[in-house]
């Protein structure tokens, strides 16, 4: 990039506020170029950010950030915001250990008013900020930017329902901006999407335009509406769903046109009460390859922008997600009761092939995890066999539904819980750290933690054959590389297996950390059990190992508090066995973004870390203990 560009002169948004419209347009071009170069070198969310370049510039130009609060939904589209708020150079460290996060974080910048990663929270948070400003007598605006995908999350509607309501607390001075690019990660689904498409088609407006004017005539809004019409390509229309919620709806306007965005935002900044601006953008805007394929450019790894994403020269290792996707198709072939469900994560959860082959038994329910779980419960009530493919971190959204709608009724729903454990670059908001703990405490739930690819397939078949709810939990990416047998065979229910016989110390491994545990055991001369089930726990195996060894070590890629190791402790306590136990797992802190292997090593969960922890606690293996000098 050449020296002394306009972008390089921007140390913060104040600089933008001095710029002419022409300069803002030049800045947009430079920002887009920088973004593409930068993300292509680090990997990260690309196409959403290419779509928010002009909107971000206009927002920081018009609003007095950070005094005015700007809240991004999900936050995966906040890179232009990061670049313009003093983090241009830090973009080289994006999502890396010690570098800046891929999402807004309050600890990273005063411009990041609210930490995000999960979707559909922005309107609630901005509403809270707007009401806080009212109560504290502070003159500031709160702005939420939410995508059309994130708007399908129920929380967004809960917030709209509250935001447009004039209770005793009064109406909030807030602005909700709908960034409508007609895309979620994959094409969006549902009636809301159809509704937005109708709004965008203009037909709705042609019909509503005159009616709108007459409704607004003689009200203060009429002049307001007229002003908007002069400045924007859209207009103010009552009667949209957003108006019914009590918001003043404006739009749709072109979100890449600064000549529309700036005056519209200026008017909205000065308006009182809840405002709603519908902005239309294109995901991947300005980079032809991303515009043509926004799905694959949603979150690419590193690539050369001149040629775009290329197939790797050597085929990558099979991922757990792929193992699940193949199993789902095979089991659907074998059992026509199977129904596959994803809350807006078709690609990430491995359901692309299933949708193609079994379209009638496939449901993408949108970003609606709570609904996904209860919808599955309904299907199960009628004798079908739902499989909810869901990321561990997003299942947190559906926890009450899992307890109240599935587990209490003991319904046979399979939860294919992907991204269990650390996820790497996305960091703490996306880590699947808590699932083993939050699932195993629920009565009726079975929880399986397969150690490798082949066992994952077996665990899925086992869960599917089970008469009650069962979760199979596996990590992001590839495992030990164990070949997957095509049979749909099951595991012995609630049984672990001893994988290595040693002495003195027994390591009880839950999930994929079996392999580093085996490597550590070679050095330690320890016994290793692959426990497979967190619940029902193989109590007989735990007690046998406790009786035949001096020390036990539990290993899991999940939070120590309440996790699988805690289950072992409970089992020993109930049997009255006082064997010293070392619990290894994720510490009681949120783990930052970074390379997964590096993070696991930091947590002491690689082979060397496990070995060191064991030696520190229980001493070196007897073979390494030097005999005392004669
Ligand atoms: C609760 C939750 N579920 C799922 C996701 C995964 N996710 C991240 S971005 C995204 C699509 C969001 O679509 P939209 O809001 O329209 O933004 P766009 O990517 O189109 O810019 C999804 C499903 C998430 N972050 N949070
Ligand atoms: C922003 C978001 O929530 C998703 O895009 C997420 O980053 C996907 O993660 P995976 O790469 O693990 O599918
Ligand atoms: Mg979208």
From TrEMBL:
Protein name per UniProt: 1-deoxy-D-xylulose-5-phosphate synthase
Pfam families membership: DXP_synthase_N (PF13292), Transket_pyr (PF02779), Transketolase_C (PF02780)
Function per UniProt: Catalyzes the acyloin condensation reaction between C atoms 2 and 3 of pyruvate and glyceraldehyde 3-phosphate to yield 1-deoxy-D-xylulose-5-phosphate (DXP).
Keyword Transferase: yes
Catalytic activity as recorded in UniProt: D-glyceraldehyde 3-phosphate + pyruvate + H(+) = 1-deoxy-D-xylulose 5-phosphate + CO2
Cross-referenced InterPro entries: Dxylulose-5-P_synthase, THDP-binding, Transketo_C/PFOR_II, Transketolase-like_Pyr-bd, Transketolase_BS, Transketolase_C, Transketolase_CS
Cofactor(s) annotated in UniProt: thiamine diphosphate; Mg(2+)
NCBIfam families reported in the protein's UniProt record: dxs, PRK05444.2-2
Lineage: Bacteria, Pseudomonadati, Pseudomonadota, Betaproteobacteria, Burkholderiales
């Amino acid at each position: 990039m050449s020296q002394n560009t306009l972008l390089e002169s921007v140390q913060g948004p104040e600089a933008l506020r001095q710029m002419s419209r022409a300069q803002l347009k030049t800045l947009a071009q430079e920002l887009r170029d920088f973004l593409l170069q930068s993300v292509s070198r680090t990997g990260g969310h690309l196409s959403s950010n290419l779509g928010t370049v002009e909107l971000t510039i206009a927002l920081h130009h018009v609003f007095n950030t950070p005094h005015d609060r700007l809240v991004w939904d999900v936050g995966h589209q906040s890179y232009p915001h990061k670049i313009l708020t003093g983090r241009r150079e830090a973009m080289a460290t994006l999502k890396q250990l010690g570098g800046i996060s891929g999402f807004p974080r309050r600890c990273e910048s005063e411009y990041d008013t609210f930490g995000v990663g999960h979707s559909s929270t922005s309107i609630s948070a901005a509403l809270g900020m707007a009401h806080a400003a009212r109560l504290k007598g502070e003159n500031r605006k709160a702005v939420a930017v939410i995508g059309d995908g994130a708007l399908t999350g129920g929380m967004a509607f809960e917030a709209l329902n509250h935001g447009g309501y004039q209770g005793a607390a009064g109406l909030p001075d807030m602005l909700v901006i709908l960034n409508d690019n007609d895309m979620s990660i994959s094409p969006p689904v549902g009636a809301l999407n159809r509704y937005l498409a109708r709004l965008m088609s203009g037909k709705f407006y042609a019909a509503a335009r005159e009616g709108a004017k007459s409704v607004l005539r003689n009200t203060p809004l009429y002049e307001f509406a007229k002003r908007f019409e002069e400045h924007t390509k859209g207009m103010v229309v009552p009667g949209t769903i957003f108006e019914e919620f009590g918001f003043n709806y404006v739009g749709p306007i072109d979100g890449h046109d600064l000549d529309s965005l700036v005056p519209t935002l200026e008017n909205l900044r000065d308006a009182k009460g809840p405002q709603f601006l519908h902005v239309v953008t294109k995901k991947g805007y300005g980079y032809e390859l991303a515009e043509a394929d926004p799905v694959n450019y949603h979150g690419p790894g590193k690539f050369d922008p001149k040629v775009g994403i290329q197939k790797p020269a050597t085929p990558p290792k099979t991922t757990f997600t792929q193992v699940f996707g193949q199993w789902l198709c095979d089991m659907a072939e074998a059992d026509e009761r199977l129904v596959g469900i994803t809350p807006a994560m078709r690609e990430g959860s491995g359901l692309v092939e299933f949708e193609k082959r079994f379209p009638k038994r496939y449901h993408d329910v949108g970003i609606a995890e709570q609904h996904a779980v209860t919808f599955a419960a309904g299907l199960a009530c009628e004798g079908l066999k739902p499989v909810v493919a869901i990321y561990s971190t997003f299942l947190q959204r559906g926890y009450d539904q899992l307890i109240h709608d599935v587990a209490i009724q003991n319904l046979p729903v399979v939860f294919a819980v992907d991204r269990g454990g650390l996820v790497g670059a996305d960091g703490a908001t996306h880590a699947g750290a808590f699932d083993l703990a939050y699932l195993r405490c629920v009565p009726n739930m079975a929880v399986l933690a397969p150690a490798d690819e082949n066992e994952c397939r077996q665990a899925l078949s086992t869960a599917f054959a089970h008469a009650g709810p069962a979760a199979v939990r596996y990590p992001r990416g590839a495992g030990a590389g164990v070949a997957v047998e095509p049979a749909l065979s099951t595991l012995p229910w609630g049984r672990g297996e001893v994988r290595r016989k040693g002495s003195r110390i027994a390591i009880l491994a839950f999930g994929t950390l079996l392999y580093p545990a085996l490597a550590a055991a070679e050095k330690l001369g320890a016994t290793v059990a692959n426990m497979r089930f967190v619940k029902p726990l193989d109590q007989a195996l735990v007690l046998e190992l406790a009786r035949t060894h001096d020390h036990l070590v539990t290993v899991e890629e999940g939070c120590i508090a309440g996790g699988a190791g805690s289950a072992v402790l409970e089992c020993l306590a109930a049997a009255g066995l006082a064997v010293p136990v070392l619990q290894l797992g994720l510490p009681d802190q949120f783990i930052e973004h970074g390379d997964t292997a590096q993070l696991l090593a930091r947590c002491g969960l690689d082979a060397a870390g496990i070995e060191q922890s064991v030696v520190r606690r229980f001493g070196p293996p007897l073979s390494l203990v030097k005999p005392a000098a004669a």
